Amino acid sequence: MDKYERLLVIGDIHGKWERFKSVYDKVGFNPEKDLIVFLGDYLDRGDTPVPVMEWVMEHYGQKNLVFLRGNHEQMFYDAFLEVQSSDGHNAFSLNSSLAKWLVNGGQITYEEIRKTGRKDTLISNWLRLVAKLPLCTEVVVNDQVYWFMHANCNPDLPLAEQDDVDLLWRRTLAERPELHHGEQIVVLGHTPVQALGYEAKPQWLQNGRLVLMDTGSYLDSSNPLGAGRISCVDLLSGEIYQSAV
């Protein structure tokens, strides 16, 4: 069991560098006293993914920062591994992993990476990082068990037995929180709370046992769901930190 002054978690960033930096600066993370968990989806949809990539790569492995893998990291990984293994043949077919990534927000990421003039190096370095990112993690503080993953889990199974598709893609608990009867606190990103009818701030459901952290980071005021934010929460105190819109 660990002792921290703050147990912090940051939801989906999706290539919104200024929003991310604004909330991270508000938090004032102290690696000697705090632990911070990032729930994945660092890239795609947002217009400034490269500074986010560089920040994550620079900070990966530093004390008390935990970076999880999201489905957008998985799509990126699958896309470029397929490209490398196929030598480009059929890489742009409609059913390819690359096509799937591009139509799910990867197009803007690819263009921004290309503009740097360091495309091959950035892609190679990011692929190496993604390969290291875990799909979930457990933290125990003050005898309370916390589970962190990007998208979803089966609360009745041990973490080691969770299905990768569940952890990265499904939305079961976000849409049906009553399915969580366990004592552990499950913390998720992936599903924007606005899409579930909530306002753009983290949501505690099931008597606080389920925490939803995706507050629509890439959404702007023209979106039918309204403007989004990037959010961070201290799970020990309930304090919320959010980016400007």
TrEMBL record:
Pfam families noted in UniProt: Metallophos (PF00149)
GO MF terms held by the record: bis(5'-nucleosyl)-tetraphosphatase (symmetrical) activity; phosphatase activity
Ranges for domain Calcineurin-like phosphoesterase: 6-208
InterPro entries xrefs: Ap4A_hydrolase, Calcineurin-like_PHP, Metallo-depent_PP-like, Ser/Thr-sp_prot-phosphatase
GO BP terms: RNA decapping
GO cellular component: cytoplasm
PANTHER family: METALLOPHOSPHOESTERASE, ZINC-DEPENDENT ENDOPOLYPHOSPHATASE
Name of protein: Serine/threonine protein phosphatase 1
